[in-house]
Design a protein that fits this description.
Largest sheet: 5 strands, mixed
Shape: globular
Structural class: alpha+beta
CATH topology of the largest domain: Ubiquitin-like (UB roll)
Number of strands: 7
CATH architecture of the largest domain: Roll
Strand order of the largest sheet: 2-1-5-3-4
Number of domains: 2
CATH class of the largest domain: Alpha Beta
Distance between the termini: 41 Å
Radius of gyration: 19 Å
Length: 225
């Protein structure tokens, strides 16, 4: 067993467990986009970042792919973590503004407007469809092509793969292909209809970490003395 501390709570988990698995088992919510139970960890979206170590030498890591370590100190909802998640979500909105999945995450993280220039309405390269096709459907009909800004997902040479069984698994897991909201206008892209109440303990700068992990936040009205 590995001993570590998560949000001030000393715990023991099995060796090989990821930080994401350990935190969720204890009831600490961590948002994800590219992660799905049953598929190998990929760490592409970075939504699951957590802060490990102690300041000023702490750092952010993708919890879905980071294994637990003896004596490690983990914070899943520090100010630094929440800021990082918001920036990541704003960048994802600029890439795929009409994705219902991304919009719901943005609303839950108190994002009300898209600040970055919208350049695409396309794939966010989370890799869910590729892993689903390979690991669950055992087909390998699609994969990544190219590098950098030219990277894309498709079949080799854009020719229909004979391995594809038209199962629809890739579409089922794709955040960009699921239910889509109406607006792509940066001023209206976050409608706020799915917004949760903001965590007052962090948003009002009363504490440096979230004080409870209820989802949705019940706005407990913590006050400074």
């Amino acid at each position: 067993m590995i001993s570590l501390t998560i949000n001030g709570l000393e715990v023991k988990v099995e060796k090989g467990t990821t930080l994401l698995e350990a935190a969720r088992f204890l009831g600490f919510p961590i948002p994800t986009l590219c992660h799905m139970d049953g598929l190998s960890p990929y760490g592409a979206c970075r939504m699951c970042v957590v802060e490990i170590g102690e300041e000023p030498n702490s750092r952010l890591v993708a919890s879905c792919a980071f294994p637990v370590q003896e004596g490690l100190k983990v914070r899943t909802a520090s100010e630094r973590v929440l800021r990082a998640r918001k920036i990541i979500l704003e960048l994802l909105l600029a890439t795929c503004p009409q994705s219902k999945v991304i919009q719901c995450l943005a609303s839950a993280h108190q994002i009300r407007q898209q600040r970055f220039r919208q350049e695409y309405d396309d794939c966010i390269m989370c890799g869910l469809c590729v892993r689903m096709c390979e690991e669950q459907m055992m087909a390998k009909a699609i994969g990544f092509r190219g590098r950098g800004e030219n990277r894309s997902i498709g079949t080799p040479f854009d020719i229909r793969s004979e391995e594809c069984r038209l199962c629809g698994g890739c579409i089922h897991v794709c955040p960009a292909c699921q239910l889509r909201c109406t607006y792509s206008d940066p001023e209206k892209v976050i409608c706020g209809g799915c917004a949760n109440l903001e965590p007052p303990c962090v948003e009002k700068e009363m504490f440096h970490d979230m004080m409870c992990y209820m989802n949705p936040c019940v706005a407990c009205e913590i006050r400074k003395d």
